[in-house]
Amino acid sequence: MSVEIITKEDLQAFKIELLADLRMIIREVPEKPKEWMKSAELKKLLKVSHGTLQNLRISGQLKFSKIGGTYYYRYHDLLKLLENGMPKFL
């Protein structure tokens, strides 16, 4: 049975190599957009007020789901809204 001595320099080199591998793996994973967005995220993204978002819901231009007191919007439905052209009041 042989004994190997690991030095601080060996550990430092391993750390650098491991971090480089992790960075490469992270770059390879494509970033998937969120499937659902909350009202606050959507308002920030579209730069609209709460009332405008409410008008989109009421008019049926933007589909939503309400869980508890929170409205959720599908990313897919937002893309449809943008593809069809933004409503006049935006």
TrEMBL record:
It comes from the Bacteria. Residues 36-85 form the Helix-turn-helix domain. InterPro entries: DNA-bd_dom_put_sf, HTH_17. Pfam families: HTH_17. This is Helix-turn-helix domain-containing protein. It comes from Mucilaginibacter mali.
